[in-house]
Amino acid sequence: MRTMSQFEVFETSAGGRIKAWVKGVPVESQARAQLENVAGLPFIHSHLAVMPDVHFGRGATVGSVIPTKGAIIPAAVGVDIGCGMMAVRTSLTANDLPDSLSAIRSEIERKVPVGNGRGGNHKEAPARAATALRASGLADKLDVILRKHKRIQRTAFAKQLGTLGGGNHFIELCLDEADRVWVMLHSGSRGTGNILGTYFIQEAREALEKRVLGYHVPDKDLAFFVEGEELFDDYTMAVGWAQDYARLNREVMMDRVLLALRDFFPGFSLEKEAVNCHHNYVEREHHFGANVWVTRKGAVSAKTGELGIIPGSMGAKSFIVRGKGHADSFCSCSHGAGRTMSRSEAKRTFTVEDHLAATEGVECRKDSGVIDETPMAYKDIDAVMAAQSDLVEIVHTLKQVVCVKG
Prior knowledge:
Elements: E1 2-4, E2 7-11, E3 17-20, H1 29-39, E4 48-55, E5 62-68, E6 71-72, H2 74-77, E7 84-93, H3 102-111, H4 127-136, H5 138-148, H6 157-160, E8 170-175, E9 180-187, H7 190-210, E10 225-226, H8 230-262, E11 270-278, E12 280-287, E13 290-297, E14 299-301, E15 307-310, E16 317-323, E17 332-334, H9 343-349, H10 352-358, H11 381-387, E18 392-405
């Protein structure tokens, strides 16, 4: 290992190379081993880039940027395809907000279904969602995929457009350094993206069993499609659909949240600064002299001048950032604080009282059902930001006052 600038360089036993922005933040041994497995694959282009929110994940490490030539690893993209963030700044300030924010939180939860299962769907798709879906052409594009792959289960994707989901997805009202009110939310492609991701991960595993390779693939979740194969084209079509749906889902959800706010503040307006960015996705890009597929597994694009969002956890700060276009990171940055422990470990470790103390001053759920999302289960967001100071500059620092979770 050697240190260069803000990042550390690791040479792996399989001949791979890793550049990691992890100064001052913990990296568990499981994650390090997983990173080495990915970096050693022969179709990795140049090196693997590791963000400071890095932690062990399924298939590939969360907080990694994986450039591949002629191949894509579906499990590295994952099943929450297109998961990402959206934020808008309003004309409201802290002085406009009431002392109690519980009614605002309740109204947001009425306008935007939260959680998984049928309760997390619209009973009837709102007019805005139906109109947006028609204009997008996504229904027809999905039909093309489903006609070809008849084993993919059909879902209520129309009723899930503009819904939050569960897990670490959230809707927040935040205050910036000038006490201006922002709306920020985190969600992805919901059930349909999950089903598409799960289906193609299994297809890749089956394809791997039939391949004759001159090298070892150390984990079945690193099964891949090769460019030029029919399944490769089908997967890129499906993942592209899920990423487009995820972006539209955030836009429709944002409309629903703003509609809820207008019940309390009819005259507010939106400011110019708005961001809508993926952090679980794959995209064709040019790096180090080649056109490659870049999978950002819990990482955000941070090209020069590009705005992004790096959220903390419940009760912690979040950041609107501007990319510096750092070539060695493949123009990327972290997607959040990153977990320090699994959900099950967090539930064993912390109590409701711990969570109450950690979320003091935030209008949010404070019950045992969200202990796995408590701030103590995540890395120190300030340390994460310090470790990637050469990747992004902070434009705004946000502190949440309302947090809606599934």
